[in-house]
Design goal:
Elements lengths: L2 H7 L4 H21 L16 H11 L15 H7 L7 E5 L5 H8 L3 E6 L2 H10 L6 E4 L13 E7 L10 H11 E12 L16 H5 L7 E8 L8 E7 L16 H4 L6
Parallel strand pairs: 1-2, 1-4, 2-3, 4-5
Antiparallel strand pairs: 5-7, 6-7
This protein binds S-adenosylmethionine.
């Protein structure tokens, strides 16, 4: 049953609808945690890139967005807030776009948007949710993205994908993000924040300030790093903006495909 169908079934009663949604989300979350090897100590090797788990999330959700833990059916409030009063020009890329709400917000702000996700099912779902969209959706892998995207975007936006990836993949993910940014373009990252030394026991893995600062590579310079304290039901977040000087091209090195064994964190002693 689609989102509209469910609303009708609940007779438009918002409170009941919210409760019902929350219950379905909690049930889905429990099942998804149970099949995520990153939830068990030493289990990460079974799915080092977490790809099997992301595929499973969308497959198990069917067409119920409550089954996709990050799907709020609205753009992230810190993106909405950043876009307020801004008019975008040129091309934007939404990385790990999920069900497509952030890409729609970037498009509504004026950008010509390309959006991609690893999971083809997420892309089909996003297109179905926004049939009139001008967003160009693709199933693609951050670690093996089309060469034509290199240095091609005036704004690259990433929300919650880095924090969903195992630590060992972050240098490669960071290089891939920087590589998309055109001369004069910017990278905008929204992620949960944690202190250095805090070790999150299971995913998502909020990012440290050092990890955010390390996104300034391949000629990207930090423009702003906002440390946004918990408020309005949101936990503490980073919202960081990086810019490439107009005269600098991204590195022309080809990213190597991540080998599953190389990506695995070191074995427990
Ligand atoms: C935590 S979700 C965030 C989704 C969306 N950005 C949002 O804010 O709602 C992370 C997304 O990244 C996608 N993803 C994970 N690994 C990826 C990869 N290697 N390449 C592209 N997308 C990936 C997942 O399928 C998932 O949709």
């Amino acid at each position: 049953m689609g989102e509209e169908g469910r609303e009708k079934r609940l007779g438009g009663n918002t409170e009941t609808a919210n409760e019902d949604f929350a219950q379905r989300r909690a049930a889905a979350r429990e099942k998804l945690d149970a099949i995520d090897p990153h939830h068990s100590p030493g289990g990460a090797e079974a799915d080092p890139l977490r790809k099997d788990w992301f595929e499973a999330v969308y497959a198990l959700a069917g067409d119920d967005p409550a089954g996709v833990p990050w799907a709020n059916l609205a753009p992230h409030p810190l993106l909405t807030d950043w876009l307020e009063g801004r008019r975008l020009t040129g091309r934007a890329l939404d990385v790990g776009c999920g069900l497509g709400d952030n890409a729609e917000a970037l498009s509504a702000a004026g950008a010509a948007v390309t959006a991609f996700d690893l999971v083809a099912g997420a892309i089909v779902w996003a297109r179905r949710r926004f049939p009139e969209t001008t967003v160009d959706h693709h199933a693609a892998d951050l670690f093996d993205a089309p060469v034509a995207w290199r240095g091609a975007f005036d704004l690259v936006h990433e929300c919650y994908t880095l924090q969903a990836l195992p630590e060992a993949l972050l240098p490669q993910a960071s290089a891939a993000l920087a590589g998309f940014v055109a001369p004069g373009g910017a990278l905008l990252v929204i992620a949960r924040a944690r202190e250095e030394g805090e070790i999150p026991p299971r995913p998502p893995w909020p990012l440290t300030r050092a990890r955010i600062e390390a996104l300034a590579e391949q000629g990207l310079a930090i423009e702003t790093i906002e440390d946004i304290p918990a408020r309005d039901g949101l936990v503490r977040h980073w919202r960081a903006l990086f810019r490439r000087p107009a005269h600098r091209r991204p590195l022309s090195v080809k990213l190597v495909r991540v080998d599953r064994r190389d990506a695995a964190p070191p074995a427990e002693p």
